[in-house]
Amino acid sequence: MSGFDLSGLTASFNGKRVIGPLSLTVHPGDKVALVGKSGAGKSTLIRLIHERVNRDSSLIPQDLGIVNALSVFHNVFMGQLDKHATWYNTITLARPFARDRAEVNALLKSLGMTEKLWTPAASLSGGQRQRVAIARALYRNASVLLADEPVSALDGPMANSVMTLLRDRFSTSVIALHDVELALNYCTRIVGIQDGQIALDQPSANLVASDIMFLY
Ligand SMILES: Nc1ncnc2c1ncn2[C@@H]1O[C@H](COP(=O)(O)OP(=O)(O)OP(=O)(O)O)[C@@H](O)[C@H]1O
């Protein structure tokens, strides 16, 4: 699966509706940026989409989901935990296989983090932790990327290099982004969220940054 057609998406907290009901169709090859002001419902929508497409997606959540007690290697390896037998995962915990070490190392190299393979995640910086979550999503290699502010802790050049990597590695994606320029440069479709509803849905090619500002 690389596209999806979801309807009846709703979320409420304490009896207050924060998303929907809304429908979202994502075609194979769509690279969707979710934009909108803080609290508009972007993270909630990413979570709702993930609940529906789950195993077919690579997820980068806003809280990253990093396990501090584990090494960088093991955090990245978790991206494929459900693809291996239990015995394989158990052996990997103590003594990772050379093929997996090489694959994870290559991913970390593309993210400028080779020397951190065996570092405990607890001792990483915020930007390094974010890159571990990105490496985990790349390692999972699902057909769809769902990401919530995946480059918010990275400096400008690194943010651009990671967005290029994600664009090239995932043909279909939905990425919540607060940086409108990144959204326009790296995504093919802009979906604007306002008060839990879709207030804008246009190809990026038809838009400039000022067209999106009414959402903020
Ligand atoms: N666990 C929760 N309990 C109560 N309210 C919540 C919870 N999670 C989100 N909300 C509320 O739902 C609304 C949408 O939140 P959400 O995190 O989806 O927004 P967002 O667009 O991703 O914001 P940001 O850009 O700041 O991350 C907000 O009003 C928020 O306060």
From TrEMBL:
Keywords: ATP-binding, Cell inner membrane, Cell membrane, Membrane, Nucleotide-binding, Translocase, Transport. It is found in: Cell inner membrane. This is ATP-binding cassette domain-containing protein. It holds the Pfam family ABC_tran. Residues 4-212 form the ABC transporter domain. It comes from Marinobacter aromaticivorans. PANTHER family: AMINO ACID IMPORT ATP-BINDING PROTEIN, PHOSPHONATES IMPORT ATP-BINDING PROTEIN PHNC. It comes from the Bacteria. The keyword Hydrolase does not apply. The keyword Secreted does not apply. InterPro entries: AAA+_ATPase, ABC_transporter-like_ATP-bd, ABC_transporter-like_CS, MetN_ABC_transporter-like, P-loop_NTPase. One of its GO terms (molecular function) is ATP binding. It is a peripheral membrane protein.
